[in-house]
Amino acid sequence: MASGRKHLLKVIILGDSAVGKTSLMNQYVNKRFTQQYKATIGADFLTKEVMIDDKLVTLQIWDTAGQERFQSLGVAFYRGADCCVMVYDITSSKSFDNISSWKDEFLSQSNPKDPENFPFVVLGNKLDKESERKVANAKASQWCRDNGNMPFFETSAKDAINVDEAFQSIARNALSQVKEEEEYKPTINLSGGKKDKGQKKACC
User: Fold this and answer.
1) Cα–Cα distance measured from residue 73 to residue 7, given in angstroms and rounded to the nearest whole number
2) CA atoms within 13 Å, Cβ hemisphere of 85
């Protein structure tokens, strides 16, 4: 039986330009893919309701620009994130090498309470271009193990490969983060009404 309380989870997607961040988000939320590339300006977000372990969860997925000139916009968009998704292109070694920088950028901008245990998920996108692969699965898997055993998926936004599975993992990891925070922020019922200290704001 589903829990009556809704959870709003803020998810940030980071990565170099053209790795497929927007395409992954659109494939997951709208089941749609387009070959036309249009760079994200600043940031945009979509929402989707999902059931995770009998809990109704609203994912607020933020797609941020990969261009360096927009990174200074990060603080407002990163604040309050429950999970960070880092995306690289399996046909681009540089995009994989930059994952570490994106992780450092996120931790610096968002300043989470417990950076050592903050949930990150890594996606190696464009699996439909296997013949052009430059980043070995084993190499990426090892990097994720060495950096806190991050969940890792290889995906194709174009062919919808592992996209739903990846975002299920993202939602589950984000929800676990919220649960831990709520242990220190109990709901308190007051005579004048209900006050929930653990309630998350809808946006940044």
Assistant:
1) 26
2) 34
d(CA 51, CA 62): 19
Pinpoint the alpha helices (H) of 98-162: 99-110, 137-146
Contact 81, 110 (CB under 8 A): yes
- Predicted confidence (pLDDT) per residue in 121-169, tens digit: 999 999 999 999 999 999 999 999 999 999 999 999 999 999 999 999 9
In the chain, where the domains are located: 7-196
Token pair 């592992």: residue:
162
Q: In the chain, which stretches have pLDDT less than 70?
A: 1-5, 35-43, 65-74, 179-204
Structure tokens at 61: 């997925």
Alpha-carbon span 151 to 97, nearest angstrom:
17
Instruction: Please provide the average confidence, as pLDDT, over all residues in the chain.
Output: 81
Residue 81 has which token pair?
Answer: 């994130």
Report the CATH fold assignment for 7-196.
Rossmann fold (3.40.50)
> Distance between CA 131 and CA 43 in Å, rounded?
32
